Amino acid sequence: MVVSALAIAAVFSCQALRRTATKIYPQNYTVEGSIALTPVFQGADERRAHVAVALTRVASGLEQPTALAFVPGDDATALVLQKTGALRWLELATGAGGTVATLKVNTASEQGLLGIAFHPRFVENRRFFLNYTLEKDGKELSRVEEWLAPASLRAPGAKAVRVVLELEQPYANHNGGHLAFGPDGFLYVGFGDGGYRGDPHHAGQDLQNLLGKMLRLDVDARVGEAGYAIPKDNPFVGRADAKPEIFAFGLRNPWRYAFAPDGRLVVADVGQDTFEEVGFCARGDNLGWNVREARHCFEPKEHCATAGFREPFFEYGRDEGQSVTGGVVVTSARLPALEQRYLFGDFVSGRLWALSLPESSFTGTVGAAALGKWPILPVSFALNEAGDAFVLDFSGKVFRIDPPPAADAR
């Protein structure tokens, strides 16, 4: 994810679009007060199939939000993470909200409060997990931490109970930061390559380094001093040359990933110079970085290795965006055109797309349908328990993705 110079550029781009919005493409709407904003379809999006949607603003006034998650068992309440360290509760029906906790975090570049995941049995045990960056003993770290919630997250009392994992970060970008529980009950922790550019420490392909990896941890058990146990079927268990926490490797900066209803893990990995990518991430996969950028050679630029990599099934270039934001598989029947399709976007350009996930054995690329280029900075997506999709705008808003006005549902 990019939240520094590119974010500033994108904000100005969005402001300009707000001033010049027209009704060239009236099938999609964002309601901003009494003004209906429309997206544009440019470049490759003009040639793609179009999906008509409305973006309904359900919250605003947030400060650099980075993630949104609905509280299990309480679909009226969501938790919002703000980059600067505030964990807030939000009632989307009314816009009411308040502070759950404030964490002391580093905020340079892409650092901050970045990820949240509720335990699969949260309704019973009230456990949830946060991923954030901090300084400790003169070092900059990513920390995965377990928290305990009170009976209602709208009331005070949420508290940190233990550190699950800490990992030193050599630079202030490419922290990853997302968290997700899989259908197997294990916690999946995605780390970027540690930052700067070009993966100078070669973390992506180094199995002795947890940077540039997707980790799979059992947070319901502990072994020794670790805040977790290693699942016995992790792919590198028993290998002296690899860390047993690793589930997959070759990641640059996995900015959001999600499990499809069928259990497959879909990861969006932010590219460097030329391409953004979306693909599957399965047990033992090598996703290619820094040998490959999406489906192309990165280093060396020509005649790089091609065998043994899990190639993405979708990629796009800098003419369409500069920082992919992974999404969710929509399961609500309220949006037939999106039902069972993977929804995602680009943080810098504001473009939104949807695609049908291919079979796991598929090795080519798939096409996506365009929802348009919107005047927002889509930093994260979320589903409520009904399967409705929401997009979080880094400029401080939450939008629900709705069917279009009846007259434009064509």
Describe the structure.
With 410 residues, this protein is mainly β. The protein has a single domain (5-408), classed as TolB, C-terminal domain (Neuraminidase, 6 Propeller), CATH 2.120.10.30. It has three helices and 28 strands. The chain has a six-stranded mixed β-sheet with strand order 2-1-3-28-27-26, with no helix packed on it. A hairpin with a 5-residue loop joins strand 26 and strand 27. It starts with a helix and ends in an 8-residue tail after the last strand.
Report the CATH architecture. Answer: 6 Propeller
Rg measurement, Å: 20 Å
Q: How many discrete domains?
A: 1
Count the E strands. Answer: 28
Terminal residue distance: 34 Å
Low-confidence runs of at least 5 consecutive residues? 4-27
Helix content: under 10%
The fraction of residues assigned to DSSP E strands is 35-45%
- Number of H- or I-type helical stretches: 3
Mean pLDDT equals: 91
Shape: globular
Determine the structural class based on helices, strands and strand pairing. mainly beta
Give the CATH topology.
Answer: Neuraminidase
* CATH level-four homologous superfamily name: TolB, C-terminal domain
Strand order of the largest sheet: 2-1-3-28-27-26
